[in-house]
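pasting for the record
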Amino acid sequence: TTPHCFWAASLLKWKGLERFVDALRIAHQTEPVFSTICYIKPKQINLAISMAPIPIPFTKWHHDPDNFDQLRSQCNIFISTSTKEPFGLSILESLAAGMCVIIPQDGSYWDEALTDKVNCLKYPEGDNATLSRLILQLHHEPQLLSAIQSQAYIFSHQYRAEHTYNNIVHAVTAETNHTQPSSALDHAKKDV
């Protein structure tokens, strides 16, 4: 299967569209890299946003597509360029779709949860040249792409939020039950 990159996010600057576009431009100096970019434009905000679409070879742009899942299914590499993404549901969805995810090493949730060269690839945060090299590496090493896709899929199916956060929920519930003041009704029941 030909490697095909997928980037999907809002155009908020911190989502890093420019980093991906720059990495593609670097890669294109060596060989074509096919990619699909899906984006939404934030409305009524005072935060910086990226410009899109930008003319770049071998790249298809889609604004808020209705066929998002279909577009993602045509790709096998998910690129995350978000800075310190708190959770990143799109990463979990991409893992579950059996994609190879490439994420920044930034101490974020997924940086801590995933293992480089096992179920993802990681690049130093903001290092577009290394991101470009990783994309090209997957073009030249289809066995690496396939292995990471398989491990990503397995990881995603072992991931269950209710298990991951079970201890936290129990601790909070126990603390809440322990510290709540007794009601007058509770006191009345004890007196009977």
